[in-house]
Amino acid sequence: RAKEKGGNTFQLYYQEMNHRSLEQLNLENQLRKALDKSEITVFYQPLVDLKTGSITGMESLVRWKHPQGMISPGDFIPLAEETGLILPIGNWVLRESCIQNKKWEEQGLPLLTVSVNISVNQFHQPGFVKYVQQTLSETGLDPHRLCLEITENVAMKNVSYIMDTLSKLKEMGVQVSIDDFGTGYSSLNYLKRFDVDTLKIDQSFIRELTTDEDNEAIVTALIAMSKQLKIKTLAEGVETREQLEFLIAKGCDQIQGYIFSRPIPPEEFALLVTNQQNLFNMN
Ligand code: C2E
Ligand code: MG
Ligand code: MG
Ligand code: MG
């Protein structure tokens, strides 16, 4: 289209494109080296049980400590997916999360479950189950203390491979949750066929929970349906007291959100869990 408007516009358009792809290439090269330079790191966000009010686990969320500032996964995971770098990065995050959880266990923190995001490509890489198994045995983490978060989009590929992979993981004792539920190509059929432990209700439904009747209906139905299917529910992105009270009233099992804590570095997370313990002990 730019070409039709004349040479100058085309040239500008062309330069712009070139500039952008150079930038992309630059970022890609930097990301390629980031793992070796220990710039890739993990933050943890508590998952809170609504019956006991205590932290039962944490989601590990990758961060890139770029020399020019922290980069959120939303800004480099797509690039990592495109370039295949998601495999070494994702596998590193999985390993690091297991190491960290085991460390906390050895330090005497209450037993926690660490939830790790697994991208579609990572889940479908040959030898994925073996990698999980190896990581667990090398780090010594109890398989029950690991949860893998997959999205509905994982299920779009080879259904028999997914069933097979999930059942192998379940046999090992690893937990599985469906992340961002309701935003992908949801099929209720999958919930029946795939043996998952937890359904994570996407934060887009939680955000306007108490102001949007449709969201209220959807969340209520998801919680009720999950109960019938004996799948636990976790609400993502809980920020307000109203949202929290609504979810408690509906019988949601767990929450995650800024109302309790943002994703924080490991040292801070350990303090949070320890202080929670102290608070309980004092009462
Ligand atoms: P996700 O797995 O759905 O993770 C939850 C995201 O919601 C996190 O964003 C978290 O910081 C944010 N969040 C939690 N509570 C609240 C809240 O109360 N309000 C708001 N506004 N946001 C909240 P984050 O860390 O930026 O991660 C974004 C996404 O990037 C993740 O969404 C996940 O899809 C992806 N991601 C993160 N780490 C990894 C990883 O290690 N591997 C892969 N493949 N993807 C990852
Ligand atoms: Mg997640
Ligand atoms: Mg999520
Ligand atoms: Mg989400």
From TrEMBL:
Signal peptide bounds: none
Domain EAL stretches: 24-277
Name of protein: Diguanylate cyclase
Taxon lineage: Bacteria, Bacillati, Bacillota, Bacilli, Bacillales
Residues of the full protein shown: 322 to 604 of 604
